[in-house]
Hints:
Two copies of one chain form a homodimer.
Chain A: H1 3-12, H2 20-29, E1 37-40, H3 43-53, E2 57-62, H4 69-72, E3 75-79, H5 82-96, E4 102-107, E5 113-122, E6 126-133, H6 137-141, E7 144-148, H7 153-162, H8 180-196, E8 200-210, E9 216-218, E10 221-225, H9 239-257, E11 261-265, H10 278-284, E12 290-294, E13 300-301, E14 304-305, E15 319-322, H11 329-339, E16 343-346, H12 357-372, E17 376-378, E18 384-386, E19 402-409, H13 412-426, E20 430-435, H14 444-453, E21 459-464, H15 470-481, E22 486-490, H16 495-505, H17 512-522, E23 525-527, H18 530-543, E24 551-556, H19 560-570, H20 580-589, E25 601-602, H21 610-622, E26 628-634, H22 635-641, H23 646-662, E27 667-673, H24 679-694, E28 699-701, H25 703-724
Parallel strand pairs in A: 11-12, 11-15, 15-16, 16-17, 19-20, 19-21, 21-22, 22-23, 24-25, 24-26, 26-27, 27-28
Antiparallel strand pairs in A: 1-4, 2-3, 2-4, 5-6, 5-8, 6-7, 8-9, 8-10, 13-14, 18-20
Helix pairs in contact in A: 3-5, 9-14, 11-12, 13-18, 14-15, 18-25, 20-21, 21-23, 23-24
Amino acid sequence: MEVEEIVGKAKTEMRSALTEAESKQILARYGIPTVEESAALTPEEATQMADELGYPVVLKGLGSKLMHKTEQGLVRLNLSNGAEVMEAAKFIRKAAGDDLEGYLVQKMIEGHREFVAGVFQDAQFGPVIMFGLGGIFTEAIADVSFCIAPLEENHAWQMIDELKSRKLLGAFRGESAADTNKLLKVLMGLSRLSMEHPEIKEVDINPLIISPDGNVTAVDALIVLGENGLAHERETLSGDEIELRAAEIRSAIDAMVYAQSVAVIGATEARQGQYPGIFSCMRNFGFPGRIYPINPYIDAIDGLKTYPDLVSLPERVDLVIVSVPRTLVPGALRDCIASGNRNVHIFTSGFKETGEKEGVELQQEIEKIACEGGLRIVGPNCMGFYVPASRMLTWLKASTKSGPVSLISQSGGNAQDFTHYTSSKYGIHFSKVVSYGNALTLDSTDFLDYLDHDEETKIIAMYLEGVKDGRLLLKLARKVNSRKPIIMLKGGLTESGARAASSHTGSMAGGMKVWNAFSRQSGVVLVESVEQMAGVTLAFHHLGKISGRRVAVLGVGGGMGVAIADACARVGLELPALSAETVKKLRNIISPAGTMIRNPVDAYEAFQNLNLIGKTLDVLSANGEIDNIVIWMHLDWLYIYKVGGAYLEEIARYLISEGRKHVRDKSLVVVWKQYEPNPEISKWISVVEKILLSGGIPVYEDFSNAASALSKLAEYSGWLKLYRN
Amino acid sequence: MEVEEIVGKAKTEMRSALTEAESKQILARYGIPTVEESAALTPEEATQMADELGYPVVLKGLGSKLMHKTEQGLVRLNLSNGAEVMEAAKFIRKAAGDDLEGYLVQKMIEGHREFVAGVFQDAQFGPVIMFGLGGIFTEAIADVSFCIAPLEENHAWQMIDELKSRKLLGAFRGESAADTNKLLKVLMGLSRLSMEHPEIKEVDINPLIISPDGNVTAVDALIVLGENGLAHERETLSGDEIELRAAEIRSAIDAMVYAQSVAVIGATEARQGQYPGIFSCMRNFGFPGRIYPINPYIDAIDGLKTYPDLVSLPERVDLVIVSVPRTLVPGALRDCIASGNRNVHIFTSGFKETGEKEGVELQQEIEKIACEGGLRIVGPNCMGFYVPASRMLTWLKASTKSGPVSLISQSGGNAQDFTHYTSSKYGIHFSKVVSYGNALTLDSTDFLDYLDHDEETKIIAMYLEGVKDGRLLLKLARKVNSRKPIIMLKGGLTESGARAASSHTGSMAGGMKVWNAFSRQSGVVLVESVEQMAGVTLAFHHLGKISGRRVAVLGVGGGMGVAIADACARVGLELPALSAETVKKLRNIISPAGTMIRNPVDAYEAFQNLNLIGKTLDVLSANGEIDNIVIWMHLDWLYIYKVGGAYLEEIARYLISEGRKHVRDKSLVVVWKQYEPNPEISKWISVVEKILLSGGIPVYEDFSNAASALSKLAEYSGWLKLYRN
């Protein structure tokens, strides 16, 4: 039977699950190696089929009402002749009683190495392929890896590689390595099946046995029917229509981002000691376009004439900002539609994110209005846009400089914190920042597509709690990421974080393993905090790509060796021991007794005489033993050796002029650390940082921050290499 | 046969490993349930024994030269009658050939759940008990837990609890839960065996099978003879003699710590732009006692008459500091012995830590001199003492205030960084600080014992790379820790860190799993960085113990909910959802629409009116739902709400006066965060911190630092409860 027939039959019989035999028939159609088997109705027929298959065999009782077959004794293994089959069949008949519908006779597959493979549905990403350790260990050990369908071959290899139990797939205790071709067939087959049959919700192959000769066989399998999360992908739109719609959305976002005219519904005078309101924030930031306060209760705000509604405005505007109590939002949206204004930012909160009935229903109401009216909505429950070039800002203060980074943030708080931090600490500025909250109509995917086409954006940072269409996000992110690195802070990866996310922007947050699969497949760099996102952005901004994970550290200070080695190891960077030849060359530069040459290089003497730093960098970068050089400035110690912060400035100036030349194609990073908050030293820190940043050298406080940034950069560079091959 | 006889026989036969049968005989003596079995010489005898044991049985070929029995087909499972045994025995005879010495007939033990248990030797901690998932998964999954012998029952439970595969030990897939009493017998038996028989180096039980009925059986076992690291514990000293020796060492350390007279061998004039030397440092810090510079080449230093050697001094001194080139150290030590000076700090480096022949040999030489002369040596390769009360300091600058914390640090650099950081950032000062480097004669255990008896020391911090006698450290730390918390930074836990540690102080660093066992057994709190050690010290200092892991957060700021929830979950703190009753009470305090009441509590309004903070704290602390309260001050936001840093000071003052009363017995912690480095805000940070610290409220920058400190405190409190029961 064909897949459609089997599924159709089950549906007719109102079954949500296929039988074991049906399930394996379908798997076989998708190239998945399954155990040889036949169904029989009587003990006699079973015996005959066993004779045909060849011994030893397994005999199972069949019946749609039979559950927990093993526990009930309805599965008999290793039967070695006809008499044993006959006896087993009789036993099964007795044990199963009236529920018995027949027998399944299978070739007995030997093998201790049991795995599982399957498909399940993720609320955001649809079908996910699963592979892991099986047998009785499946639940207990939970050694599984995921990949979002559709799978490509290199994803399948990565899945296998991620398992701790992957050793079992190699040659193991006298048994042959698993037939990798067949393993691949299993995973790729599951992927194709899940993509081609959206009516299949779950597939569970357990066990998938690796025989001593390395053969791979699906011995038992279960397919469950249902909704599989691909429904929306089967829209009737053509590729051209989809692109047309995307182009429309991009052009709407462009109009908002570069708005010449803005209306603020619910504009008020600024109040002291409180958030002054969006209208004031836009004016404070120097928005140069036409701005219309909408407020039926007063005549003028801040010297500007107010209007009672949008319909009364002299023009259609590029952006309407809605900042009224939540119960008035539906009316405001209707006003938008009536006046022909389609681009809207809803600042107001109190919707789905409350988790309460009233808010959820109100969101449903405005969603309906927005969809019917064809509105492009940013929000609700968000801060909207910060675009320095357009002088658009909805909060109190931000840099007016433009830069190469754009940010898509579900949270307004994080948008403010991240932009403040990145601008003021690292001197990196922004092109477009959007906070979009509950994502009523415009979601992260729309903004990502927009930024992909935006020439000013070179690096994309994202703060995400959830996404409506995970599959689209994956597809888009993968494409964009190969041109512009995407750095993502995913909130709600832990269970309690997910609960918090749901009450922050009403998002489903999704499990950590699925998001790790997302990162592996898309190359998107996942980070754990706003600060780390800023630090990684800094590394991408100044270094771009790096060639590998090997680090040499050049510094001065007690105890640094052990701590730095541990910090590198924690994030997967290597701190290779230097070769004898390199050590010898370094000895010629750094001479004093008692100073050992290892990695980190204790360069006490070099820091007394800057030219020696250059010579040391020459040796380190010439030897092909490392990819990155970190200069470790323990400020307390440097200050002791050559009293006066001016010397710290000298070092920084040397590094951006001479130092950079000596590292050749290696990446150069500076780390400073101050344990004693001596204000005499502290005041030089920002001087040193500014010089280094102006010279394109990333500078971090604390080694672990630099290590995490380099490690993420290496991860991205590795993905890019794989992606391009 | 008794254990001694079996071991003796093997030794006579020059075997380093016992046979399977011998191994199991010994295990059985120690109460470990082993499979029933007998040895046979001929196939006929094997058949007869199988009849006696009852079928099914397992038949194995025996022979001291037979390796990889399974792969060679010398193990035949599940034989169900005499004929099968006979046939199997003949097959084995053929396969093994001349190496066959006999047969082992065992009752066939059924069970899918295979574990391993055993004993191995750690270089620092001696016998370690191991328990983990077995069968073919042992290597592949590496799900094992360790405990340093001797085991106590609660350790055994913790070992079991730490396994990811512990689910397999419960009722599982229709099989009964493992007989916990028997499991305990296995682990406790291994512990006793390893303690009572130092000639046993390794024990490997694999598999330990859990049968469907829950029975526990050691099916195969191997015992290897050798040195087991307990040798030094079998010294001939009596308990009284050991205590007498410890008392002598304590009194020597006491003399050094409170030295009235110090001689510095190798004293020189301070040089500009360099470390000025120990003599100058001691003088600069205001050492009030008699200080003698020893230097045969000059007459006076800094106005003080020099002496050519110790013998010329007018008195014996409390402490001799040796600061001469390494080749002169042996002579300096002989001078100590000749002059009757026994308490010595060797500052000089260039010994074992170099890893080079010359240094290693020089260390052996001075060790010999020191032992023969009965010297008490701190060092070499270290900074020695910092004792504010005695005005002793060997580096440039430190607080002159005394405090409740003492530090034992193998690294001089870390001693400086940690004390600088803790004193100046958290206002916590030190009683005794010792940096002891290569630990020639005095090791961490000696200093720990001293601090245990030191009434001024309330909290002990340690930076350790390695330890000579891990078992003594465990014993001591466990005892001390129940009275004075020990916070330990263990350097070299990663592989490359261990390599670095070996070249820093010449220490063997040991594996992470063993040190985790050490922490679990001793209750010593392990931290990962100098900064974390300071943060945890702060929590211990102000909070002491805490009642649990449940945290409520009261704050203001966007996006904090998700990030805080994720940060708590990462370190194992709980952020419980508040009960409906509590939410209702909070609603009466914090009213405005749009502000949701959840945990974290978004207390925008409370921060506008400080009395509301008190009321909120009342509700949170009264409900029995939480153990700790964190006040989250997002400075950028607070500054917006009520412009002016003076208001931040007001909040801090309110918290230390009123606020503290409202939290009752809950612990209160404050966290601040500033993303926009607005200098107008920044200048208030140290003001706020000082106020809070003076009022006994720990204050941290960044939530994750507070979370890690609370989590470590909870870990300690949990251990203490267990320890006292």
